[in-house]
Amino acid sequence: MAELSDQICQTIDTWRAKFPNSQARSAVLMALRTVQDADGYLSDEALENVAAYLNIPLAQVSEVVSFYSMYRRAPEGQHTLAVCTSLSCHLCQAHGLLAHLKTRLGVGPGETTQDGRFTVKVAECLAACGGAPAVLVDDQHYHECVTPAALDALIDELSESKDTADG
Ligand code: FES
Predict the structure, then answer these.
(1) Are 132 and 158 members of one domain?
(2) Does residue 89's CB lie within 6 angstroms of at least one atom of ligand 1?
(3) I want to staple 141 with a disulfide (CB 3.0 to 4.6 A). Which of 69, 73, 118, 137 is the partner?
(4) Are 144 and 87 found together in one domain?
(5) 134 CB under 6 A from ligand 1?
(6) Strand (E) positions, the chain?
C-alpha cells in the first residue's frame, strides 16, 4: 500500500497539533482534504492511509467521507458544476438546469465530459435558497438565480480559462 507523502504527513501533523492528543479524530476532515487536494479524489487506499496515520478506525474515516459532499470518491473533471436539487432549487427549475447541462455537455449527474473538463453533480441544499436555483462551481464558487443562459456563459468562461492556461 502506497503511503502518504512526507508533505501530506506534515500538513496533517499541523492540523492534528491543533487538537488534544486524544482527539486525533478531530483532524480527519482536514487530513482528508489535504489528501484530496493532492490526489484529486479519495481512493479506498487513501482512506486506509489516513485512518492508519491518525491511528483511528477506518470506519470513522469512511463515515466522515460519506457524510460530507465535498469529498470526492472518484476522479472528476477539471471543473465541477454541482446543481442543488433540494426543495427551493427544485421548485425553481434546478432540473431544467441539469437537462440543459446534459444537452450542452452531454453528461448527467455523476458523469464527466470525455475531454475531462467538466463533471456534473447534484448537490444537497447549498444554503443559498434565497437565490435558487443555485450552482456550486469547483466546490467554492456560488452562483445564484442561475439560468440556462447563465450556465452557458459560465461554461464558456471556464473553457476559456483552461484554453488560456494551455496556451
Ligand atoms: S435548496 Fe438549493 S440552496 Fe437551498
Answers:
(1) yes
(2) yes
(3) 137
(4) yes
(5) yes
(6) 79-84, 111-112, 118-123, 135-137, 141-143
Query: Cell for 4?
Result: 502518504
Q: How many structural domains does the chain have?
A: 2
**Is residue 85 located within the same domain as residue 143?**
yes
d(C-alpha 70, C-alpha 82), whole Å: 10
* Residue range 4-58, pLDDT digits in tens: 999 999 999 999 999 998 888 899 999 999 999 999 899 999 999 999 999 999 9
CA of 131, closest atom in ligand 1: 3
Does the C-beta of 154 come closer than 6 Å to ligand 1? no
Q: Tell me: do 11 and 86 sit in the same domain.
A: no
- In testing the pocket of ligand 1, which one of 83, 86, 122 has its CB within 8 Å of the most ligand atoms? 86
Question: Which CATH number does the domain housing residue 134 bear?
Answer: 3.40.30.10
In Å, what is the CA distance from 157 to each residue of 59, 90, 92, 152? 40, 25, 24, 9
pTM of the predicted model as reported, rounded to 2 decimal places: 0.76
Q: Is the N-terminal amide bond of 109 cis, ω within 30° of 0?
A: no
Residue 18, in any domain of the structure: yes
- Ligand 1 atom at shortest distance from the alpha carbon of 132: 2
Q: Which domain holds residue 161?
A: 79-166
Query: What is the Å distance from ligand 1's center to 145 Cα?
Result: 11
